[in-house]
Design brief:
This protein is mainly alpha-helical. The protein has two domains: about 1-105, Cobalamin-dependent Methionine Synthase, domain 1 (Roll); about 105-135, no CATH class. It has five helices and two strands. It has helices spanning about 1-25, 35-40, 60-70, 110-120, 125-130; strands spanning about 75-80, 85. A two-stranded antiparallel ribbon has the order 1-2. The longest helix is centred in the N-terminal third of the chain and has 24 residues, at about 1-25. The relative contact order is 0.14.
């Protein structure tokens, strides 16, 4: 029960922080007046995609995110497989453009994998492991 409650509170805080960014901090939606149903339907401006989901299937990007944000300073860290610890942690990106929308990357072909491999400083085995669910 404790873990479930912690997960729900982490997600609720992420939503509250996203609302605060839209309305107060960055003000790109300062006139936002959405009902609870509209919020649930994600009718706000912008999106909040997260590593590991269809728009950003690779969890590895969390490493740089955690480094830049100094997540260790507040006790957040990543496991060797890029799972977040504590488990009730949330990470993602904010995109404020009014035309931003969620999308699926889809399957990655061998030609795309080779191109990505040539542009990153990682081994093919590591890349194949981290992208396994989306390699066609």
């Amino acid at each position: 029960m404790f873990k479930s409650l912690a997960d729900r509170l982490a997600e609720a805080f992420a939503e509250a922080l996203h609302a605060r960014a839209r309305v107060d901090l960055w003000g790109y939606a300062s006139d936002e007046m959405l009902t609870s149903d509209e919020l649930i339907a994600e009718q706000y401006r912008g999106i909040r995609p997260a590593p590991g989901y269809p728009a950003c299937p690779e969890h590895v990007v969390k490493k740089d995110m955690f480094d830049v944000l100094k997540a260790k300073d507040i006790g957040m860290m990543l496991t060797d497989s890029y799972a977040m610890h504590p488990a009730a942690s949330v990470s993602g990106f904010y995109f404020s453009h009014p035309d931003s929308q969620y999308f699926n990357v889809g399957l990655i072909g061998e030609d795309q994998l080779r191109d990505y491999l040539a542009r990153c400083d990682r081994s093919e085995a590591d890349l194949r492991r981290s992208l396994a669910p989306v390699i066609g």
